[in-house]
Design brief:
InterPro entries: Citrate_utilization_prot_B, NarG-like_sf
Strand content: under 5%
Strand order of the largest sheet: 1-2
Distance between the termini: 55 Å
Structural class: mainly alpha
Keywords: Membrane, Transmembrane, Transmembrane helix
Largest sheet: 2 strands, antiparallel
Number of domains: 1
Number of strands: 2
Protein name: Tricarballylate utilization 4Fe-4S protein TcuB
Radius of gyration: 23 Å
Oligomer: single chain
Number of helices: 13
Shape: elongated
Organism: Ahrensia kielensis
Length: about 375
């Protein structure tokens, strides 16, 4: 992580600590105000707690042309980006994707789709998709592509956890972090009015809603795949499934929500203020959104193409998009969800530890008072 960026973040954090005007905006400021000096791990933790809602920038009286030149959303965005790249494994892949994400995403989808097109010549058998490509071939391709990114993410998150000084996790830390992530609490603004991401004078919940659509749409699609796997292996009910089956209900609804959410995110990205983000990785952000959009939209088109001559070609494109998404997950912005969840867990830990210290100090004070009486 750049020494210059860390020093600049420390300078701005110390000024924010003196002002405290933005204390109620999100988790960053309470976490910041618990510290007096900021180690490298503290700065990394603050960067990953930030959701870049930009409310603090528009509320700040010390932004340019003031000599303090505060731009906390941008400096934290740059540090957050470098923390993902530093902890990515293999390390160089993170930087490559975030600098050239759209090109890499398109090349990966096309390249993998061509491999699947070639794999059509392997023996198949079955109905629906399995008439084009056998179940065993799909498993042989996707299982390593699913496991390897998980290993890569685990290595990166382990390094991040050490950097921020994480300790043993308790169930309460996880539940608090998941509760915050599920509600996108840090995108609701200090008073629940939302972000002024698009316009400094107007608050909106649009960014929060679109993030929730992407997250829940993806989770529904994942649940669809999981339920299909259970039906196949546990109940000996292989695909294809009817529209009213659990895999189809979850998959179609999740695909629609995810497609609309990613389209909305692309549109919203064009309306943001580049100077409040890390402009170096704009291609990577659009590349990540494009991957998710392709996964969801080709999945819906594949369902509509069932029983038509388009089934074969749509299956190849969809499998190419899905496999490219999995392979690039540790290096795309998809990783930010894992790091942000880790940051929220660490924040819950620190708050819990502070409550214990405060409670102990209060108990000692009450005991001392009772003894004096």
């Amino acid at each position: 992580m750049s020494i210059e960026l860390k020093d600049e973040a420390r300078r701005q954090a110390q000024i924010c600590n003196s002002c405290r005007y933005c204390e109620g905006f999100c988790s960053v400021f309470p976490a910041m105000h618990r510290e007096r000096m900021f180690a490298d791990g503290d700065i990394t933790q603050l960067a990953n707690l930030c959701h870049n809602c930009q409310n603090c920038f528009h509320a700040c009286q010390y932004t340019a042309p003031h000599e303090f030149d505060i731009n906390l959303p941008q400096i934290l965005a740059k540090l957050r980006q470098e923390s993902w790249e530093d902890h990515a494994w293999p390390r160089g892949m993170g930087k490559a994707f975030h600098r050239n994400g759209t090109l890499i995403a398109v090349a990966a989808i096309v390249g993998v789709a061509l491999l699947f097109w070639a794999a059509r010549s392997l023996p198949a058998g079955g109905e629906g998709f399995y008439a084009v490509m056998s179940h065993n071939v799909m498993i042989a391709i996707f299982l390593p592509a699913f496991i390897l990114p998980l290993v890569s993410l685990a290595v990166g998150l382990r390094g991040y956890w050490r950097t921020v000084g994480g300790t043993r996790i308790q169930i309460s830390d996880i539940t608090e972090a998941f509760g915050s992530a599920a509600k996108m609490r840090n995108l609701s603004g200090g008073h629940g009015e939302g972000c002024n991401f698009e316009d400094e004078d107007r608050f909106s919940q649009r960014r929060r809603v679109l993030h929730q659509m992407v997250m829940y749409g993806f989770l529904l699609c994942f649940a669809s795949t999981s339920s299909g796997t259970i039906l196949h292996y546990v109940f000996d009910m292989p695909a294809p499934y009817s529209l009213l089956s659990l895999p189809k209900l979850l998959g179609v609804s999740g695909g629609v929500i995810l497609s609309l959410g990613t389209l909305g995110m692309m549109w919203l990205k064009t309306r943001g203020i580049p100077s409040l983000t890390d402009e170096r990785v704009r291609g990577g952000e659009f590349g990540f959104i494009l991957l998710l959009f392709m996964v969801s939209t080709t999945g819906l088109l594949l369902y509509l193409a069932g029983g038509t001559p388009l089934l074969e070609s749509m299956l190849v494109v969809h499998l190419g998009a899905v496999l490219a998404f999995f392979l690039l997950t540790p290096f795309s912005k998809m990783a930010h969800g894992f790091y942000r969840l880790a940051a929220l867990i660490r924040d819950a830990q620190v708050k819990r530890d502070n409550d214990v210290v405060t409670g102990s100090a209060g108990a000692e004070a009450r005991l001392g008072k009772s003894m004096r009486q």
